[in-house]
Amino acid sequence: MELNKKLDKYLKLTEKAIKEVKIKVPRKVELKKVAEDFLDISKRYYEDAKYFKKKGDIINAFAAVNYAHAFLDAGARLKVFDVHNSKLFMVDEK
């Protein structure tokens, strides 16, 4: 089924992005907590996506993987993650 192939693609993409994330040590200490929270939430949604997929709940798996990647992109846009890969994150490559 095409939907399962797309889900697998997004799961692999998000897994790769999670592994590539490096938290920046910002000047404002409270932003480090934001970065840690964003990464933690992303990992939890990613695990939820895999759980839903295993149960055959493709709709909720898609929703969860999209939330997972959205938190990664938010961290990248806020510049609390040290990432430069525009294929994985919403960033400009240097």
Could you walk me through the main structural features you see in this protein, from its secondary elements to its overall organization?
- α1 packs antiparallel against α2 (29-55), α1 (2-20) packs parallel to α3 and α2 runs antiparallel to α3 (58-77).
- The mean pLDDT is 92.
- By secondary structure, the protein is mainly α.
- The N and C termini lie far apart (38 Å).
- It has helices at 2-20, 29-55, 58-77.
- It has a single domain, classed as Substrate Binding Domain Of Dnak, Chain:A, Domain 2 (Up-down Bundle), CATH 1.20.1270.90.
- The chain has 3 helices and no strands.
Strand content: under 5%
Major beta-sheet overview:
none
Q: Under CATH, the topology is which?
A: Substrate Binding Domain Of Dnak, Chain:A, Domain 2
CATH architecture: Up-down Bundle
User: What's the shape?
Assistant: elongated
Give the CATH superfamily.
Answer: AF1782-like
Query: What letter string, H or E per element, gives the SSE order?
Result: HHH
Which residue ranges are poorly predicted, with pLDDT under 50 across at least 5 consecutive positions?
none
Number of domains: 1
**Euclidean distance between termini CA atoms:** 38 Å
- Structural class computed from helices and strand pairing: mainly alpha
Instruction: Work out the helicity level.
Output: over 70%
Supply Rg: 14 Å
According to DSSP, the number of beta strands is 0
CATH class assignment? Mainly Alpha
What's the helix count? 3
Average pLDDT over all residues: 92
